[in-house]
Specification:
This protein is an alpha+beta fold. It folds into 3 domains: 2-76, OB fold (Dihydrolipoamide Acetyltransferase, E2P), CATH 2.40.50; 116-155, Irregular (Dihydrolipoamide Transferase); 196-404, Chloramphenicol Acetyltransferase (2-Layer Sandwich), CATH 3.30.559.10. It is built from 10 helices and 19 strands. It has helices spanning 84-97, 123-132, 150-155, 177-192, 205-222, 228-242, 286-301, 375-390, 392-395, 401-404, and strands spanning 2-6, 16-22, 29-30, 35-40, 45-49, 54-58, 65-67, 71-76, 195-203, 248-251, 254-257, 263-265, 267-269, 272-274, 277-278, 315-319, 338-342, 345-352, 355-369. Strands 9, 12, 15, 16, 17, 18 and 19 form a 7-stranded mixed beta sheet that branches. Strands 1-8-6-3 form a 4-stranded antiparallel beta sheet, with no helix packed on it. The two termini are 61 Å apart.
């Protein structure tokens, strides 16, 4: 029986996928549920499992865009599974029949001796060429029998392109469907929104102190680290409740606002940028946020994230600081209306109580759609985030640190 394997629907609104990589070859015997291919949609990379056991015939090439429901391979379910022992015996017999033909040793060629006349520079010329970084082979000698003279070396000019003969190759690689879709969405966000960015700085000393005191106990009890993301997520949830317009988006001629906070977390995955969503973050504790961030990050980096886990966020947090970014203007993740950018934490001199002190400072940036969020709301939102991060015990923990951390 010949089974036609069709492309399943990875999620709503997805009409086609791209064959990223075949994990088997044409004619291979595959087992039921064995991963036979990786397919890219515009939201994620998914594995395609074999529906039955049998011999496979591929009907699409790597890089082909195929519609959902289209046949990509055939599986002959009546084919018998090849016996491993027989194939090994045949391979062993073939190896025994191979006769090695002794190779005739090549006769040593007489060594060719170069002289000044064959293009080798004189000692004085060689020194000048070495100082200029010029290969003697690129210089034409004007001396007797082509000899490179001192004057030739003085007049030699380095090549403007690659004076040392370095590689100048180039590689052309087709963008994956996921990367192309990300590019389209980023350009659309720039062109279709009135995007503006406001900045502020945060003194991270209070959070440093809390983590220093409680991180070991927190990790020992809950099995996850007490990172910065839980503080930022809690601070963002508080600010969204104070400024609900930031937790809204435009739908035609209407403004759609949400009474819940689904926070998208930008994660760098093997196939590009992934943005999994922490659902109902307003109900999560510090432990809950850290556990969910860890779970989603691992799934994204291992390529196991699903479309549903990356759909429906109302606000995004991106952390360029893990890569060393000091400051940036993050691009809105449509159809959302705002995104918060975190950056690296650097010891900087700041003024406190009339004195200059050194403190761990992070620059933060809020990009927002000015069509729906006014300057007062955007600045107020970012100030609310700053206030919560600089006074986490009172504003994020209600003055009860151990209870908030569930210690």
């Amino acid at each position: 029986m010949i089974l036609e394997m069709k492309v399943p629907s990875p999620g709503e609104s997805i009409t086609e996928v791209e064959i990223a990589e075949w994990l088997v070859s044409d004619g291979d015997y595959v087992e039921k549920d064995q991963a036979i291919a990786e397919v890219d949609s515009d939201k994620a990379t998914l594995e395609l499992p074999a529906e039955e056991s049998g011999t496979i015939t591929l009907k699409a090439e790597e890089g082909d865009a195929v519609a959902v429901g289209e046949v990509v391979c055939l599986i002959d379910t009546s084919a018998a599974k090849p016996e491993g022992d027989e194939s090994e015996a045949v391979a062993s017999k073939d190896q025994q029949e191979v006769k090695e033909t002794p190779k005739k040793e090549a006769e040593p060629k007489p060594e060719k001796k170069e002289t000044y006349a064959t293009g080798v520079p004189s000692p004085a010329a060689a020194k000048i060429l070495d100082e200029k970084g010029i290969d003697a082979k690129s210089v034409t000698g004007t001396g007797k029998d082509g000899r490179i003279t001192k004057e030739d070396a003085v007049n030699a000019v380095p090549s403007m392109g690659s004076p040392t003969g370095g590689s100048r190759g180039e590689t052309r690689t087709k963008l994956s469907m996921l990367r192309r879709k990300v590019a389209e969405r980023l350009v659309a966000a720039k062109n279709e929104t009135a995007m503006l960015t406001t900045f502020n700085e945060v003194d991270m000393t209070p959070i440093f102190d809390l983590r220093s005191e409680y991180k070991e106990t927190f990790k020992e009890k809950h099995g996850v680290s007490l990172g910065f993301m839980s503080f930022f997520t809690k601070a963002v949830v508080r600010a969204l409740e104070l400024f609900p317009a930031v937790n809204s988006m435009i739908d035609g001629k209407e403004m759609l606002s949400y009474d819940f906070c689904d926070i998208s977390i930008a994660v760098s995955g093997p196939k590009g940028l992934m943005v999994p969503v922490i659902r109902n973050a307003e109900h999560l504790t510090f432990r809950g946020v850290e556990s969910e961030v860890k779970r989603l990050a691992i799934r994204a980096r291992e390529g196991e994230i699903t479309v549903d886990e990356m759909t429906g966020g109302t606000f995004t947090i991106t952390n360029g600081g893990v890569f060393g970014s000091m400051l940036s203007t993050p691009i809105i993740n449509p159809p959302q209306s705002a995104i918060l950018g975190m950056h690296n934490i650097v010891q900087r001199p700041v003024a406190k109580d009339g004195q200059v002190v050194i403190a761990p400072i992070m620059y933060v940036a809020l990009s927002y759609d000015h069509r729906i969020i006014d300057g007062k709301e955007s600045v107020g939102f970012l100030v609310a985030v700053k206030e919560a991060l600089e006074n986490p015990v009172e504003l994020l923990m209600d003055g009860q640190v151990k209870k908030a951390l569930e210690l």
